[in-house]
Amino acid sequence: MDKVRLVIAEDDPRLRESIRQIVETTPTIDLLGVAEDGEQAVQLAHQFEPDVVLTDIQMPRMDGIEATRRIRSHLPHTKIVIWTVFGDDQHVFEGIKAGAIGYILKDRPAQEIIEGIHAAARGESLLTPAVAVYLTQEFQRMRVQSEARPDLLCELTPREMEVLRMIAQGKRNKEIADALFLTEKTVKNYISSILFKLQVNSRTEAALLATRKGLV
Question: What is residue 48's predicted lDDT score, i.e. its pLDDT?
Answer without folding.
Answer: 96
